[in-house]
């Protein structure tokens, strides 16, 4: 019970990785509010995680909208009995594929708006609550694409690199309020979404051949790091990132 009685908001909490983070946070004793733009996915996540107690709630949010974020954070302070937000996991994200010069300005704007601007604005409103209540923890979803470039993902790569430096700056500015901020950089994580997209076997084998640990990551591999960074076990860790990629990017 490493998150006993902590109140956590998870953006993108109805997604492949976010829903597993929600499950792990519940298992560790947290009260969890999953927020996501996809109401159907919220409902099925709530259903799937049913039986974990009455400490799980879902709300629709659009992290590209400041008003939607402000409204959700306000509702969160009513949902959590003591009004405190102890943990924010910013996981909502998108990654449309297009190469130069075809990459459209609107796709660039949308990607930066969800992945980077959304992380900033959600953090901004949650931090107000954390300062009032004497501290908290923010864990932001970046990617190995925030550290190294991958073709066809210029907007995504730039947004995830932005998340890393946003997190470091927040860590510096918020340490005095006892707020820690870190990011997580997963490599290729095998999700239901990718399975249903039917990625060709040779493409998956090619990926695996670049991973020293010889397999793709799982949502649970990532969720366990979100637990660690949200818990007091990481009390002296702020302003850094943890790579979860089976060793893929530690080599030439
Ligand atoms: N799957 C991977 O291999 C991988 C690797 C590295 C990083 N990531 C990052 O992990 C996060 C989750 O990825 P996933 O694979 O679980 O994808 P996913 O599509 O299953 O989950 C993303 C969630 O974000 C939500 N979302 C999208 N736009 C939103 C908005 N405007 N407002 C609120 N919610 C919104 C979606 O509805 C979805 O539930 C993303 O940030 C992604 O970039 C994934």
UniProtKB/TrEMBL annotation:
Pfam families in the cross-refs: adh_short_C2 (PF13561)
Gene3D superfamilies: NAD(P)-binding Rossmann-like Domain (3.40.50.720)
Gene Ontology molecular function terms on file: oxidoreductase activity
Keyword vocabulary terms for this entry: Oxidoreductase
InterPro entries documented for this protein: NAD(P)-bd_dom_sf, Sc_DH/Rdtase_CS, SDR_fam
Descriptive protein name: SDR family oxidoreductase
Organism domain of life: Archaea
UniProt record similarity statement: Belongs to the short-chain dehydrogenases/reductases (SDR) family.
